[in-house]
Amino acid sequence: MAGSQSSNVDVDGGKKVETHRRPWLKPVKGAVDRKVLAGWEQAADRDSLHTRGARALSPTARQLTPGVTVVLAGAGDRFADTLDGIARQTVDTGLVEVVVVLTDGAGRAAVHDLGAARPALAVRVVTVAGAGLNRAFSLGVAAASRQYVTLVEAGDRLSPNYLEALLAGAGDGVVAAASVVADGEAVDSAADLAVGRLVSTALADRLFRTGVVDEVDGVFWLAAAVHGPAELTTAADAVYHRTAVPARPGTGDFRTEITERLATVVRLERLHADSGSAVGELVTQAVARQAERMGDYLAQHPDQHPEVVKELDRFPVFELPHGLVNRGMPRGLVVAYAFSPYADASAIVMAKRVRNMGGVADVVYNAMDRMRTKDQTVRRISGPFIADEAPVATPTYFSHWGSMEKFVEAGMAEIHKWEAEKGRYEWIYSRAHFAASHLLAAVYKLANPEVRWTAEFSDPLSKDMLDEERGTPVEDGPVLETLRNGAKALGLPIPESSNCFVWCEELTYVLADELIFTNPNQLEYMMSYCSDEKVAATARSKAVVSAHPTLPRDFYSMVDFDYPMSEGLIHLAYFGVFYATRGMDDVLAAVANAPEELRRKLRIHVFTTKPAELDRRAAELGIADCIQVGPYVRFLEFLNLTTKFDCLIVNDAFTADYQPLNPYLPSKWSDYKGSGTSVWGLTEAGSPLNGQKQLAYNSPVGDVEAAGKVLEQLVRDKLAERSSRSA
């Protein structure tokens, strides 16, 4: 560029290496000490882009001069108007440097013309063939030599006062923003753009070098606000005119609209964890915009929902608003009194059911803040299948008709709002550990007899573990009247009992189109105490046995939980409530009875919310040194932990003294199955757990001697496995 202060630097090389300027490339005789290495590093930081890429010109490695570096990047012949606009800026030319990043050779002529017309304007060129726009911008930032940097895409235009206005609002702790206009209208999502901003060059470079950002996109500006920290300010009279025509929503390809947006969300979530409330809201909004664009794509390609879910599972995304992604999908209705994000076993099982069904659904659940904590990570399970959700703030009780009635009324109100917008549902799925789920579903079914209703019973409702009836009386009111009149109109039997759980069970038996039981014993037991043989026969005709789902293997590594364990020992783990009267106590007693040599090889890890009873029992048995109490862990952390031990322990509920057959299958078993770790079951004869072929070890619950034999065998097996691996 004759007559200009410019230089042509090719990142891809092609020029002769000058070893007097790059001493680290020159052969060296003798030793190279730290002093020599330090000198080479300093020289490399002063070097051009020939061999080390644009980041060799790091602004942190030399003195930055006052003013602004305009990084102009793009391809094709779109440079002329943009360069002309830069040349006509009202700011002092001496405060401006232009770094033009060419991804092909088409812009060279326009750059040459600018150099000839405005020789006082400092212009440099970086050529990086085939690079995308974000990569080109990042190289330009690395090559900047002025105190501040702003990005411009070839073909766009700047208002004449653009640079002057942004510089007037600039500062080390400031991200100065211009108004971004496209087709004459302000762009609401300007925060997602790489353009229209000005920031400290040193801060921009630091973000790249520390790995906070790896590309210049909308995340870059938010990262500057979070990690600067920098305040976001607006230069109202500065305007950045976008001339590129935005793609119509949903018209991009899968990689652009799904994969790359998920990668952006990952970076945004990392920022969100470090941000304060003000910037945090901006990050949340940016995540929502990414979700909206993903939803635009999915609305155009609904058949690709399974592929979108698979892609979601690949990314560590926990805060994505799935409702925006799934808003255009056909959907059913899920009613689950307990549902994610609450840390509740029933809620997690239902989340897994939703995933297994595969269809998108709106969900109504109870706001359980009074009795359950939240675990946002479990949204990973069902989130990709949820559109709208309504946590209704009604009183949280297991067995209280008044609270059930309020849940039904509030839930129906939410459903009516959705139906007014989207029409009626074709299917509904409800799950009862909490009976109110089925009662709401029954009311909806009576109003919409054409809907297909699938109802799942996690456990017997109206009978407890001692085979005694439980439940509170139903009470007169609108919900009971609806149920009674609806059943009567259909010629269905009305329960004679006043027990709310009996009403839930028997109305569900006759109204639902499909009934899910978790194991055959549960089905047989619940039918055995049904008050009406015809109702039981009807229930049997539509019953399906389906155990709690096991999540895909990817879920066991979504969260890495760092839990230290002593090397050389055999580590067993138990997760759940500890009872000194059954189950896990068999293991403790067996450890106490074991030879000292075996005990020294064992460590039992117990993850329980109430460890005091465990500590007392271990002290009584004299095995406190063999027991380690683990911390409370969230569900995905629990899944990850299950992969780290030599063996997992699961125990049956003890029912032999009270019930003819054990109707309970621990939900924990479904999680253990997917871990790839050996499992030891302490089981009752004939129980659902006892019949699981995948159990590596099995001993009768309450039989300490049998538990001791399992311990001996387990230690032998695990030591042999280690020996085989080392060989």
From TrEMBL:
It comes from the Bacteria. Residues 12-21 have a biased composition (Basic and acidic residues). Residues 1-22 are annotated as: Disordered. InterPro entries: Nucleotide-diphossugar_trans (IPR029044). This is Glycosyl transferase family 2. It comes from Micromonospora siamensis.
